[in-house]
Write a structure and sequence with these properties.
mainly alpha, two-stranded antiparallel sheet, 2 strands, membrane, transmembrane helix, transmembrane
Length: about 160
Amino acid sequence: MFTQYRIQLQYRNRQRQILNALLALATGLLTLAYPNFLYLIAAGYLVALGLLFIVFRIPSTLAALPIVAGVIIFIFPELIPVTFAVFLGLFGLILLMGFQFALIGVLTLIIAILIFMNPDSVAYLIATFLLLYSISNLIRFYQHRKGGPDDEPVSIQ
C-alpha cells in the first residue's frame, strides 16, 4: 500500500526566519553561558520553537514535534541527550529534504549522531547547533533582502 503525504507551507518566510534566528542565537548563547541549566534552556527553546510554528501556521504535526520534545525534557531532564538527538535527527531530515537547507541539514544530522556518541558534551553540541542554525538563518535573511523565491509556498511530498 502506497500512502502519499503532501504538506504545503504558506507563511511569511522573512518574519519567521528572523524570529527563528534570534531565538536560536539567544538560546545558543545562554547554553554556552549556563550549561548547568541546559534542561531548562533546551526545553524552553523547543517549546518556544513549537509556539512559533503554531503562530506562523506550520502544520500541527511539525509544530507538535518540538513541543513534545520540550515537555519530555522538562519532565525527564536525564533524557536530554536522547530527546534532543532524536529531535535534531528529525529536524535535520526535514531541513535536508524539505526546505533546501542541505548543508545545515547534514550538519544537524552529524550533531545528532555526535550527541548519541558523546552525551557528556551535549550542552556544547546543542549550543553549536543553535549557533550554526541562527547564523545560517541570518545569512539567508540578509542575502534575500528584497524578497523573491523564498517568499513563495514550500511543498513537501
